[in-house]
Write a structure and sequence with these properties.
This is DUF2690 domain-containing protein. This protein is an alpha+beta fold and 151 residues long. It is 19% helix and 46% strand. Strands 1, 2, 3, 6 and 7 form a five-stranded antiparallel β-sheet that branches. The chain has a four-stranded antiparallel β-sheet with strand order 5-4-8-9.
Length: 151
């Protein structure tokens, strides 16, 4: 009985949070750094399916010429959030011959996340994510994704 009550409480809190966030965050997946307004997407978007036919999230890489920095960007699609999907992951920029940089943890019910800024001028880089897709409390799929190299 306590387990059912706990699950119903979590479900009610999650639905309240999802409703509030869906009203506040219904914008398209487009990252903008407050410090670098000229940031643009590098190469193509990579999709995270979580075992579903339709993507639950997307991974992109952005570069700013004025700041000479790169960011990895994760967006959880609104339909997926409304259905209880979420991602727990590590998000980073992979710099050729240097490894992962700008690592950020993503979790709970974040709709979007950015890595820390990584110096990218004159370097080959790609966005990287490794994590797990959940639906409510159930683990669905582990994944590792990389965008194409941007040089």
């Amino acid at each position: 009985m306590a387990t059912i009550i706990r699950r119903l409480t979590v479900l009610a809190a999650t639905m309240t949070l999802a409703l509030g966030l869906s009203l506040a965050a219904a914008a398209p997946a487009q990252a903008v750094s407050p410090m670098c307004s000229d940031a643009y997407q590098v190469k193509s978007t990579v999709y995270i399916y979580g075992g579903q036919a339709t993507p639950v999230a997307s991974l992109k890489q952005y570069y700013s010429p004025s700041c000479r920095q790169n960011w990895g960007y994760l967006w959880i699609w609104q339909w997926a959030r409304d259905a209880g999907y979420w991602i727990k992951a590590d998000l980073a920029i992979f710099v050729q011959n240097e490894g992962l940089q700008g690592l950020e943890g993503v979790g709970t019910y974040d709709q979007e996340a950015l890595t820390r800024a990584v110096p990218g001028y004159g370097k080959c880089t790609r966005a990287y994510i490794e994590g797990t897709v959940y639906k409510w409390e159930t683990q669905l799929d582990r994944f590792e994704k990389l965008t194409a190299w941007g040089c």
